[in-house]
């Protein structure tokens, strides 16, 4: 794995700082770390990772997903050449390659133990695999889906997780048990997300234009709330409300739900009543990746080019160029359209975007992985 220093690669590791504003010592008046709002406009591409193990004449594989472990120290990508790549965030280096040539790999997620991973298969069958990253051995297979898995989401506090599938089912799992602990049959459930407390989970069904909210302990009773996106978005956005959904995420403050879209923008929803807070208009269009529900699209599948910052205030999105940043506290115009407050310049396409949960650091990727840090000189 080759890494290329970029604009500010000489920045010391101490600039990778936690997102919480904490002051240490009674005599200190200056916080030792920075809040997101202090650095969000100053992110710059810092290190570029290029796969040097790819045979000459072949293009780099596509990055299908990016994830960070709970401590923010490790970054992981699943890639289209059936590998998982692990990176050390603080050292800014590639650490390990894990192979899944027999089964394929996508949607790789860390469990709450950094040395273990779950991921969806792309070959052989549609099982979800539980892998030890330490010695690249399988610990368990989670079998139950009959079609492609479209989404995996880990519970925020335990090693329970949700899987959505093109077989019109949602499965709930405990990582210690091979058999699913619960199953829901829905019309095209494509995406899932947990609220920050882990009490509620949401399922997005683009074919019906709905987001369903469930009480985790009582999910068998059905959803306690349903958001009709067609009514929320209005007739002008009906087409966007029924296809091309790429990401579903609750903000960490629990106030908002982000619905990513391959259309002209993303949707910021009120997490309590589902009303549209703002349409986040993209300045440079969407990526070339297809959404999980777009089976007729020949492009490489994506796992979402947008995400919240850890404080829940900002939404970041990639595209064919640049990273757009929206401030959720800003007032949209009369049509509820909100334009970015910052544009982070980037010539490469950013098809997958993730903000580190513990540090002010970004990772973006398409066929190369890029680490971003705040520029201390900006």
From TrEMBL:
<dbReference type="GO" id="GO:0016070">
    <property type="term" value="P:RNA metabolic process"/>
</dbReference>
<dbReference type="InterPro" id="IPR001680">
    <property type="entry name" value="WD40_rpt"/>
</dbReference>
<comment type="similarity">
    <text>Belongs to the WD repeat SWD2 family.</text>
</comment>
<protein>
    <submittedName>
        <fullName>WD40-repeat-containing domain protein</fullName>
    </submittedName>
</protein>
<feature type="repeat" description="WD">
    <location>
        <begin position="142"/>
        <end position="183"/>
    </location>
</feature>
<keyword id="KW-0677">Repeat</keyword>
<dbReference type="InterPro" id="IPR036322">
    <property type="entry name" value="WD40_repeat_dom_sf"/>
</dbReference>
<feature type="region of interest" description="Disordered">
    <location>
        <begin position="283"/>
        <end position="303"/>
    </location>
</feature>
<keyword id="KW-0539">Nucleus</keyword>
<dbReference type="InterPro" id="IPR037867">
    <property type="entry name" value="Swd2/WDR82"/>
</dbReference>
<dbReference type="InterPro" id="IPR015943">
    <property type="entry name" value="WD40/YVTN_repeat-like_dom_sf"/>
</dbReference>
<dbReference type="GO" id="GO:0003682">
    <property type="term" value="F:chromatin binding"/>
</dbReference>
<dbReference type="GO" id="GO:0048188">
    <property type="term" value="C:Set1C/COMPASS complex"/>
</dbReference>
<keyword id="KW-0853">WD repeat</keyword>
<dbReference type="Pfam" id="PF00400">
    <property type="entry name" value="WD40"/>
</dbReference>
């Amino acid at each position: 794995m080759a890494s290329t220093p970029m604009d500010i690669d000489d920045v010391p590791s101490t600039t990778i700082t936690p997102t919480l504003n904490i002051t240490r010592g009674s005599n200190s008046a200056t916080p030792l770390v920075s809040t997101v709002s202090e650095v969000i406009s100053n992110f710059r591409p810092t290190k570029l990772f290029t796969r040097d193990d790819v045979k000459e004449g072949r293009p780099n594989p596509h990055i299908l997903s990016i994830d960070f472990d709970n401590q923010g120290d490790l970054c992981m990508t699943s890639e289209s050449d059936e590998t998982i790549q692990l990176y050390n965030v603080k050292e800014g280096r590639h650490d390990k390659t894990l192979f899944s040539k027999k089964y394929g790999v996508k949607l790789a997620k860390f469990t709450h133990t950094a040395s273990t991973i779950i991921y969806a298969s792309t070959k052989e069958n549609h099982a979800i695999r539980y892998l030890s990253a330490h010695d690249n051995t399988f610990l368990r297979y989670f079998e139950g889906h009959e079609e492609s898995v479209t989404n995996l989401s880990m519970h925020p506090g335990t090693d329970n997780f949700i899987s959505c599938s093109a077989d019109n089912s949602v499965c709930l799992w405990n990582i210690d048990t091979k058999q699913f602990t619960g199953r829901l049959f829905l019309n095209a459930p494509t995406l899932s997300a947990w609220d920050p407390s882990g009490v509620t989970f949401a399922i997005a069904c683009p074919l019906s234009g709905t987001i369903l909210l469930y009480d985790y302990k009582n999910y068998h009773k059905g959803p306690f709330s349903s958001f009709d996106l067609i009514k929320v978005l209005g007739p002008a956005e009906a087409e966007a409300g029924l296809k091309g959904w790429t990401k579903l995420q609750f903000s960490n403050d629990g106030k908002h739900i982000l619905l990513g879209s391959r259309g002209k923008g993303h949707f910021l929803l009120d997490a309590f009543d589902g009303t549209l807070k703002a349409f986040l208009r993209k300045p440079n269009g969407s990526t070339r990746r297809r959404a999980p529900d777009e089976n007729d699209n020949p492009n490489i599948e994506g796992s979402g080019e947008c995400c919240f910052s850890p404080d829940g205030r900002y939404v970041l999105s990639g595209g064919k160029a640049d990273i757009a940043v929206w401030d959720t506290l800003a007032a949209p115009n009369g049509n509820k359209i909100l334009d970015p407050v910052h544009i982070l310049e980037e010539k490469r396409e950013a098809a997958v975007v993730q903000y580190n949960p513990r540090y002010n650091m970004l990772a973006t990727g398409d066929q190369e992985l890029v680490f971003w840090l705040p520029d201390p000189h900006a």
